[in-house]
Design brief:
Shape: globular
Order of helices and strands: EEEEHEEEEHEEHEEHEEEEHH
Structural class: alpha+beta
Low-confidence stretches: 285-290
Number of helices: 6
Strand content: 15-25%
Strand order of the largest sheet: 13-14-10-12-11-16
Radius of gyration: 19 Å
Length: 296
């Protein structure tokens, strides 16, 4: 029998709670739902008004993985969706998760949460910029730390404040709150910074995606600033053998060049210790909690 629970007055059928999703640690679907329920206060503000894309992995990372932007079949009518016209579908809609009930509903599907750099109220107008640092073996997240520090210094020269989180996979994400700016302009600026980084540190930084160039270097992926692209959200689990989480980190941790890997059991203690290190990126009012920088 599928357990029925009530969350914020919504009845949810939570299925297969004992099913192991992350085999290396034996982490079950029930434990995943508990993780999202207990970290909802941190993750929900980062999902606010952002049309979601889901990477679904209901049978674990070794099973079928599929990426979807459309609302999954059976989406309850109380889950908010917004119009996000796409070139292939002018009537497209996507899910927005803003409350605990819809977060638990989505987590029950076993998903990674991916968001654009803009909110539904201002389509294709970015309020943040992202650099996805992806190491090419034998480079690791340790080399990504060096690149992140270079980016922080370079962005500061333009009056921009950078924050960081692990990708939850192999690398780091460097994020920057910006004054609302067309995604096209943000993309162009981010690309110029990545190109400048490769010129400054040619033995370490790469701005091109070409696989043959990647070994031993860190690809600074600037493309996720395009309006149609998305990035793994803060605090989302990733479809990995272990239940790793895209986790905000301090610059002191990055300066120590640590091998930064965090799992679901690490997040609550970090939130108790640090709070939400990415709080400056949250914009619930349209004005932002801290001043965001204009692009040059």
């Amino acid at each position: 029998m599928t357990p029925i629970t009530e969350v914020e007055g919504r009845r949810l059928a939570l299925s297969n709670l004992e099913k192991v999703i992350h085999p290396a640690t034996g982490t079950t679907k029930g434990e995943i739902l508990h993780y999202y329920a207990t970290t909802a206060g941190a993750i929900l503000p980062h999902l606010h008004d952002r049309p979601l894309s889901f990477l679904r992995y209901p049978d674990g990372p070794d099973g079928q993985l599929f990426f979807t932007k459309n609302p999954p079949p059976g989406t309850p009518d109380w889950v908010r969706t917004v119009a996000v016209p796409r070139s292939e579908d002018k009537n497209a809609r996507q899910v927005v998760v803003e409350v605990l009930a819809s977060l638990i509903w989505a987590a029950n599907l076993v998903v990674e949460f991916h968001t654009p750099q803009w909110q539904a109220a201002r389509p294709a107008v970015a309020d943040r910029m992202v650099f996805d640092l992806d190491p090419g073996p034998p480079a690791t997240i340790v080399e990504c730390c060096s690149v992140a520090l270079w980016l922080r210094e370079r962005l500061a020269a333009d009056g921009l404040h950078a924050y960081a989180k692990t990708s939850g996979s192999k690398g780091l994400h460097v994020l920057v709150p910006v004054e609302p700016t067309p995604s096209e302009k943000v993309s162009a600026y981010a690309k110029s910074i990545a190109i400048e980084g490769e010129a400054a540190l040619p033995g370490l930084i790469l701005h091109r995606m070409k696989r043959s160039l990647r070994p031993g270097k860190v690809f600074v992926d600037h493309s996720q600033n395009a309006a149609a692209k998305t990035t793994a959200a803060p605090y989302t689990l990733r479809a990995r053998t272990e239940p790793t989480v895209s986790t905000p980190v301090t610059w002191e941790e990055i300066e120590a060049h640590q091998n930064l890997v965090f799992r679901i059991g690490d997040i609550a203690p970090r939130l108790d210790r640090h709070g939400d290190l990415l709080e400056p990126l949250i914009d619930l009012s349209g004005a932002g909690r801290l001043p965001a920088g204009p692009l040059p």
